Amino acid sequence: MPPDHANASPDMATPPAPWSAPRFVRQVSILCMNDTRTRADLRRGLGRPVEQSHQAHRHLVRLLDDDPHPALRQAAYAVAALIAARPVRRQDREDSDTTETTETETADPGASEAGAEAAGPGDAATPPEVSEAGGLSGTEAARRYRSDNLGAHLAAGVNEGALAPGSAEAELHLYARQSAATIIHRLPCLIRNLTSQGVAIHWPVLLDDLRYWDSRRDVIATRWFDSYFRTLDFSEPSESSETAVDKRETPKEP
């Protein structure tokens, strides 16, 4: 006899999947691909705080948990605006990266969380924000956070000739001293410059790094510096690298 779902106890209902950055990024990417109005609404929030992103609420509120932490909401809105502003021609490639990340989620989303708790809050090798990486296994999550963060993206920009090495490194040092709100204000110019030269941004990692930045800035900044210098090509600079000019406009103070 089939189960009577209508009379089933609420306690037996399937709980909703925990919120994850990869899932959020995939949902935003789909919205942007399917609706130009949504893309325009989200793009208006570029570099702005949540309180000034009025057009984004109708699209993003339902993609977040009820009463999300302000730091999570700020990071999510910022990344959604950046996704909406990226060149349309890059969407297919970057959405494939996001889908691949989401599909590697483990069957037990709590497995990596349990590992992080066992390691203890002071374990810098497996920081607590890794446990939020969409249920990825601890090893895979840690690898992505080490290799796919903003530091690596800046180095890729230098390697592609989009940024001068001195400019990129100075940007990292500047970010390491700023709040998440200030970084979010500066990011649109930087991300536009990187994506225009073919550098693919790993949005879920950026979202989680911004989410935890104000509480774990030194840990995350160190990871960015590590990734930058591990990714940077130290061979003889090409002519394009030597003559690279940073054409980003200077962000206005909020």
Would you summarize the structure shown here?
With 254 residues, this protein is mainly α. It has 13 helices and no strands.
Topology record:
Blueprint (H helix, E strand, L loop, with lengths): L20 H14 L1 H8 L13 H4 L9 H16 L5 H13 L7 H9 L18 H10 L2 H10 L5 H11 L4 H17 L6 H10 L4 H15 L7 H4 L12
Order of helices and strands: HHHHHHHHHHHHH
Largest β-sheet summary:
none
What is the domain total for the residues? 1
Helix vs. strand class: mainly alpha
Mean pLDDT: 76
CATH architecture: Orthogonal Bundle
Helix content percent band: 55-70%
* CATH 4th-level superfamily: CRISPR-associated protein Cse2
Low-confidence stretches: 98-135, 238-245
What is the CATH T-level topology? Peroxidase, domain 1
What does this structure look like?
- This protein is an all-alpha fold.
- It has a single domain, classed as Peroxidase, domain 1 (Orthogonal Bundle), CATH 1.10.520.40.
- It is 56% helix and 0% strand.
- It has 13 helices and no strands.
- Helix 1 runs parallel beside helix 4.
- The protein starts with 20 loop residues before the first helix and ends in a 12-residue tail after the last helix.
- About 18% of the residues have low confidence.
